[in-house]
Structures are given as C-alpha cells and as structure tokens.
Hints:
The chain is an alpha+beta fold. The chain contains four helices and five strands, in the order αααββαβββ. The relative contact order is 0.15.
Amino acid sequence: MPIKGTAGWNVKAFRRLGFLAIIVVSAVVLVELKWHPIGFYTADRLYDNVPTYANCDVYPLPETAQQVLETLPRPAGVEALVSDRCAGKGGIELRYGSHALRVELEKILESSGKWQAGTGWFLRGVPVELRNV
C-alpha cells in the first residue's frame, strides 16, 4: 500500500516525477555542453553576437590569425582584429554596429569560411567571433 503525504501526493509518483526531472535537466546540460544551443541562441537573440566555442588546441599563433584576417574582405564599418585567446594564441574577432553588417559578414563567411555545429565560424582553420558593439 503506497504511503500518502500530508497533501495527498503519492510518494512513488513524486519520486518518479523527481527522477524524470533529473533526467531532463541532465539531458539539457549534456546537449548544452556538446553543441551550445542555449549559448548560441542567447548571444544571437539578446546581443546580436555569434560566439565561438572552439577549444584552445585549435587556436593558432596570433601571427597566423593575422595573416588569415588580412585575406578576409569586409564591409565598411566592420572592425577586424586578432583577439588573444588561450595563453598566447589568436582568434579573429569581427566587430560591427548593426544587424545588417552582421548579415553581410555571415554571407562572406558562408562563401569563404566554414560553420561548425557546436563551435561556430572558422576561416581557414581560425575561429571567428562576431560581436555587435
């Protein structure tokens, strides 16, 4: 015979609900750690940014990132720089002031770069971050 709580809840049902909640939260956390959908969505919708979630081992030396950056065509109003990442390694950061500029940059990256799910944009192996300032 199941034990009833003071509010009439069946303890077994309550435990099952708790177990289900733990499974759902764990699944969401694991998906976020692997592909970062919440991070990408938040950066995109709230800040009009496209972050990079690249691991430190893929970042090149700043000199290499600078050489790749110099080959990237960019519209007027876009500031491009090599950002210091991961103890002396460099990535590309593109700063813009409007969503229209971001759309132009993404068109350029679609033709000359590569989108990697869960990580972000890459240009010839260098991680690229888009930041609305």
